[in-house]
Amino acid sequence: MLKNILTELTSDETYGILLGVFDNMPEYVFNDFVMSDKGFFQKELKKILRKDPDADEEDIAFQFRDWVDIKWKLDVLEVNLSDFTKKTQAMIIKRKFGDANPGKVPDEERRVKLQRKFARELKPGKNEPVVVLSKGSELKLVEGWHRTMAILSLGNDGEKKPHDWDKVKLKAWIGTGSTVKNVW
User: Given this model, what pLDDT does residue 54 score?
Assistant: First the structure.
């Protein structure tokens, strides 16, 4: 079956295959993270099928096993920049908490509209959830960058170092479990 769609997967076919693989993942995390427009999973799925055109859902689940085994929980965290990985911190600072566009996002107008929307709707802890992985001592932001940067900027209490800003509430789907370290 998958051999026939190797050449060009439609978004519906990709959605169906990945939904079968991530059947225990919360719908929100699946739609926001796994099916993200520039997502890792669609690219990896195509690589898997190029390498093994006869791969079935079980084979694909095996390739994504570390992700499949992650446990997800919706919660409200009290965070500031220092609670995230060094790499996440660096990206947020480079993006000036959403005021910069270092990735040269082509649709600048769309990005600015989204940023303004987040600013109008910011209610710490009531935000549309972001998606993070947790190793216990730090968080890795995987989806919801603009939301996170906007919420974190509300903690700006005048301190020069963003790491010292007040903690703010951030609603998040938190991925935990023994396999988090494998996908970190």
Answer: 86
Q: Are residues 98 and 161 in the same domain?
A: yes
Contact 130, 172 (CB under 8 A): yes
**In this structure, what DSSP letter does residue 167 have?**
P
Q: Which residues contact residue 7 at a Cβ distance below 8 angstroms, ignoring those fewer than 6 apart?
A: none
Domain of 83, in residue numbers: 71-183
- Tell me the H-state helices in the chain: 11-21, 27-29, 40-51, 57-63, 65-68, 86-94, 108-121, 145-153, 180-183
Split into its structural domains, the chain has a count of 2
CA nearest to 124, candidates 95, 156, 148: 148
Q: Are residues 92 and 175 in the same domain?
A: yes
> What are the pLDDT digits (tens) for 51-68?
988 888 889 999 999 999
Domain with residue 131: its CATH number is 3.90.1530
- The secondary element (H helix, E strand) that includes residue 176 is strand 168-176
> Of 20, 51, 68, which one is at a domain's C-terminal end?
68
**Tell me, what's the pLDDT at 108?**
61
Nearest CA among 60, 5, 15, 28 for reference residue 128: 28
Q: Which amino acid is at 7?
A: T
Of 68, 86, 113, the one marking the end of a domain is 68
Facing residues of 147 across strands? none
149, 97 contact by CB (below 8 A): yes
